């Protein structure tokens, strides 16, 4: 399986897109991508994503670039552009997986934050639509990554985490990694949980 799935957030309007750009990065991280490339004016989003990675584990990288179009054009691997006007994800997911994940070839997933220039459509290997209906680019990215990894990303192990969220039916339970490991191994552990 490739270890280089990159999400490129094309465009960022400071003030208006801060939350959405941050969520694109957090979704990329949580659902299997290895890094996110943000526009150079999205520094606040980049810092938030890095902070989450520091606290909840990685590896995951965040880059700020001012040459997004050139970056996508020069990318050596498979390029997928997520757009509501693309081919249905369910019709192309096997092809994308075969061209990238199974072939151990880098994959670039382009997620627009503003009007995407037409050359992205022309240069992408795949223009992919999730439902072909208006919706959030975060939702489209989440569905695409889940389809790409066939759910395997949900079992990912995180390293260098300061905090681990323990699944439970009700409430919130956040503990240090030693406590999480002890509980997985059947030991009660003495470390305190943080009811975040």
From TrEMBL:
EC number: 2.1.1.206
GO CC field: cytoplasm
Residue span of region Disordered: 169-196
Gene3D superfamilies: 3.40.1280.10
The protein's enzyme class: transferase
Catalytic activity entry: cytidine(56) in tRNA + S-adenosyl-L-methionine = 2'-O-methylcytidine(56) in tRNA + S-adenosyl-L-homocysteine + H(+)
Keyword set, alphabetical order: Cytoplasm, Methyltransferase, S-adenosyl-L-methionine, Transferase, tRNA processing
A Gene Ontology molecular function term of the record: tRNA (cytidine(56)-2'-O)-methyltransferase activity
Binding site for S-adenosyl-L-methionine: 82, 112-116
Family statement drawn from the similarity comment of this UniProt entry: Belongs to the aTrm56 family.
Assembly and binders: Homodimer.
Its biological purpose: Specifically catalyzes the AdoMet-dependent 2'-O-ribose methylation of cytidine at position 56 in tRNAs.
This protein's name: tRNA (cytidine(56)-2'-O)-methyltransferase
Species name: Halobaculum litoreum
């Amino acid at each position: 399986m490739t270890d280089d799935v990159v999400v490129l957030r094309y465009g960022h309007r400071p003030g208006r897109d801060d939350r959405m750009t941050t969520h694109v990065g957090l979704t990329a991280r949580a659902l299997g991508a290895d890094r996110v490339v943000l526009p150079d004016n999205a520094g606040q989003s980049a810092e938030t994503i890095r902070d989450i990675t520091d606290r909840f584990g990685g590896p995951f990288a965040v880059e700020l670039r001012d040459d997004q179009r050139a970056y996508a054009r020069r990318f050596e691997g498979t390029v997928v552009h997520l757009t509501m006007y693309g081919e249905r994800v369910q019709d192309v997911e096997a092809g994308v997986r075969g061209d990238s994940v199974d072939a151990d070839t880098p994959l670039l997933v382009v997620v627009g934050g503003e009007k995407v220039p037409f050359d992205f459509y022309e240069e992408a290997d795949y223009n992919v639509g999730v439902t072909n209906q208006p919706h959030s680019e975060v939702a489209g990215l989440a569905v695409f990554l889940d389809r790409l990894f066939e759910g395997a990303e949900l079992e990912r192990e995180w390293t260098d985490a300061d905090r681990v969220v323990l699944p439970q039916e009700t409430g919130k339970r956040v503990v240090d990694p030693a406590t999480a490991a002890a509980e997985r191994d059947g030991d009660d552990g003495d470390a305190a949980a943080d009811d975040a």
